[in-house]
Specification:
569 residues; mainly alpha; Clc chloride channel; CBS-domain; 3 domains; 22 helices; elongated
Length: 569
């Protein structure tokens, strides 16, 4: 009866938490898109600073709107004291450890900054910021609810709800949360995440009835005809994905170099990006904002060959510029746009060689392949296509390009853009949760004060007596201020006899610094032989304590066990 009661209470709690998070994300995601779309209409209808150039009337309103967006982004950064905007990479990291939780204030400010940038017409996306908002929302809810569910479950609920509401794809939301963020499946996590994802999709339909985001024709040629073409195009899509991610990183590094050399103030960088993107948008307006209408037009084959090439290059460069220079936003939507442009371009070129009725499927395949490589979620990309088209054949066809593209991109660049962002910060997810946990724990937290401490004036005989009384075979020599001078063993103390031990000590023993992580410490002691190791303050050189090999191994084992328990919960 107790088990039945506990199970019933857990199910009720899962439904309540999942529904709450799903409802919140349904509202936020839809209002985000509706708000950006409204500002987009205002920008397109604006006639500010219109000029006649030749026989063409050009409006420079895109520059004005982007300047306003840049001012809002800068104001948010200064007002909230933000040093770095946070996104999906931070959500992934938060899901893999518990010592560095998501910052609620920074997460909310990042979402507002992304909304301002997208509303102004910056070439950025929505899904990344909304995914991170969902993760932040989940972690915030965890603060007020006492349950057996771990923090990563709440985080996953928010992520799944964001994808579900954004794409109207609840199954893809569940898969994305596990595939890209949590990186593992378990019974305890999948139930509440499923509730949140389905709730977000259902409530989006109920409260915000509107047409689907992407209009995809579900008609597809026989697989025998299309699969070879998509397999051949996969390396092209992979190359474009790698170029896009490389451009993003290059832009970010360039921005850092400009600020470090004090050539440009960090607060001016968003205005530089706004000006350049706005001017490019005057001539190629399709690259501004989220670009959903342009994506649908490209899938429908309404863009000329020259325009496809122009929007492909411009979108890639302007997205890299905006994000790298501080007009914060997501990379998911731009990767969809770039993938569709690449697929549509390839489809039109292939049509010239006699292939008919395949441009649309190639466009969607390009969209799924490039985006899956960028975000590191190939299965999610296939499921999204399946849910959008309701066509099994369409999903199978797309899967060829997605899997091959992801494989090639993984070899050339890495698992995803987010993984590379974390790797640039010294966080290697490939090593798993245990490695992250070991990296976060400092050896200073495990030191012992059970060691023998003597001065250089101590004689060998006196030291031998102290060692015998304490049952120890090593001692540490320190000066009057506590700075470590060396280490001496029982055998060296015997050799010293009634002489001072100063000439017999090891003045360069293997030492650990208190700020060293557990994994660093394990690397340092690989060749160590002895009873214990001194732990020293790196700045002062003072001895803070000692740690035995057994205690070090036990600390590593305990941290690894805790990390494994978190993953299997």
């Amino acid at each position: 009866m107790h088990k039945l009661r506990d199970a019933s209470l857990e199910i009720i709690l899962i439904i309540l938490i999942g529904t709450l998070i799903g409802a919140t994300l349904a509202i936020v995601c839809n209002l985000f898109v509706i708000g950006v779309h409204w500002f987009e209409l205002q920008r397109e209808a604006s006639t500010l600073f219109s000029l006649n150039i030749g026989d063409q009337l050009l409006s420079f309103s895109s520059v004005i709107f982007l300047w306003i967006a840049a001012a809002i982004v800068v104001a948010l950064k200064v007002g909230f004291g933000i040093t770095r905007w946070t996104g999906p990479a931070d959500s992934i990291y938060a899901a893999h450890q518990i010592n560095e939780p998501l910052n609620i204030k920074t997460g909310l400010a990042s979402t507002l900054a992304a909304f301002a940038a997208a509303s102004g017409g910056a070439s950025v996306g929505q899904y990344g910021p909304l995914v991170h908002f969902g993760a932040t929302m989940g972690v915030w809810v965890k603060r007020f609810v006492s349950s057996r569910l771990t923090h990563e479950v709440y985080l996953g609920c928010g992520v799944a709800a964001a994808i579900s509401a954004g794409f109207n794809a609840p199954i893809a939301g569940v898969i994305f949360a596990h595939e890209a963020i949590l990186r593992h499946f378990s019974v305890r996590t999948i139930a509440p995440i499923t509730v949140a994802s389905i709730s977000a999709s259902a409530l989006s339909h109920l409260w915000f009835p509107h047409s689907i985001t992407f209009e995809i024709n579900s008609l597809v040629p026989p697989l025998a005809e299309i699969v070879p073409v998509l397999a051949v195009l996969a390396p092209l899509f992979s190359l474009i994905a790698v170029c896009f991610m490389w451009a993003l990183r290059y832009s970010a590094r360039s921005a850092v170099k400009l600020t470090l050399k004090r050539k440009v103030s960090p607060l001016l960088l968003p205005f530089i990006a706004a000006t350049i993107c706005g001017l490019v948008g005057v001539w190629i307006p399709q690259i501004l904002g989220l670009g959903f209408s342009s994506i649908n037009n490209m899938i429908a084959g309404e863009f000329a060959l020259s325009l496809l090439f122009a929007v492909l290059i411009a979108k890639l460069l302007m997205t890299a510029l905006c994000i790298g220079f501080g007009l914060f936003g997501g990379v998911f939507s731009p990767s969809l746009f770039i993938g569709v442009a690449a697929g549509a371009l390839a489809g039109q070129l292939i049509t010239l060689f006699g292939f008919a009725d395949i441009a649309s499927i190639i466009s969607v395949a390009g969209m799924a392949a490039v985006s899956s490589a960028v975000i590191g979620a190939p299965i999610t990309a296939v499921i999204i296509v399946l849910e959008l088209t309701q066509s099994y054949t369409y999903a199978v066809a797309v899967m060829v390009s997605v899997m091959l593209c992801s494989l090639i991109t993984n070899r050339l660049f890495g698992q995803s853009f987010f993984d590379r962002q974390l790797l640039d910060r010294g966080i290697d997810l490939f090593k798993g949760r245990e490695a992250i946990a070991l990296r976060q724990k400092n050896i200073g937290d495990f030191v012992s004060q059970n060691y023998l401490r003597v001065t250089t004036q101590t004689s060998g005989q006196d030291l031998c007596k102290q060692m015998k009384s304490r049952g120890q075979t090593e001692a540490y020599i320190v000066d009057d201020s506590g700075v470590l001078l060396g280490k001496i063993s029982l055998y060296a103390a015997i050799d010293a006899a009634d002489s001072s031990i100063e000439r017999f000590m090891d003045s360069r023993p293997t030492i650990l610094y208190s700020h060293n992580s557990l994994d660093e410490s394990m690397l340092k002691v690989r060749q160590f032989v002895g009873e214990s190791l001194p732990v020293v303050d790196a700045e002062t050189g003072k001895l803070e304590g000692s740690i035995t090999e057994g205690a070090l191994f036990q600390a590593v084992t305990d941290v690894q066990k805790q990390a494994r328990t978190l993953e299997r919960a």
